Amino acid sequence: MVQNKARKSKQTEKRRVRRKVSPTKGKEITLSEKMTLYLNEALSMENAAVERLQLRIKQTKIENVKQRLRLHLEETREQQNRLKQLISDVGGKNPTREKTGLPIPWATKTMANMIRRMMTSAELELKATKEDAVIENAEIVHYDMLMQLAERMGITNAISVLSQSLSEEKAMAEWIRANAPDVLMQLWPEIDASIAKREEVQSVET
Length: 206
Hints:
This protein has helices at residues 2-20, 31-59, 63-89, 109-118, 121-153, 157-205. By secondary structure, it is an all-alpha fold. Residues 16-22 have low confidence and may be disordered.
């Protein structure tokens, strides 16, 4: 009886161990498959970026911001096309249509409620501008790392293509940084007016 229990216990433990073994263990991954994965990862980010840029163009009321976003939307679509071509060049098939989650800092429920209650449309534009900067810098790191991987894997034809996308992301990030003071200057009257109005209300209440 004791031996039967011990035997069953060992069999159960073996099944548990087998479940923990990675399904890819023992499977050889080719260089083409590995690079296709990395390129699809970048493509999923650009797919999401296109969607966000379209939304930002509709939302922003600042004309020079709208124009720069439109230009970067065109660049991002070209980046998608380059990535799809690279995926084909390394032997990959069916470039992903999925959209990754962009690196935007999400507010807690309490903070989100405060944002809805207290932020003006101008402040929401400032918040979106900060998010734009975070996304662009994340893409810079992503492309830089992808270029290094391509070099180590010996896929040298991909480096110049990825370098072009990297340059575009750097230019967009720099534009956001350089134009942030002007954006704030244009938005400040609305923000200042909302502060003055709130102070007036508090004065009446007291």
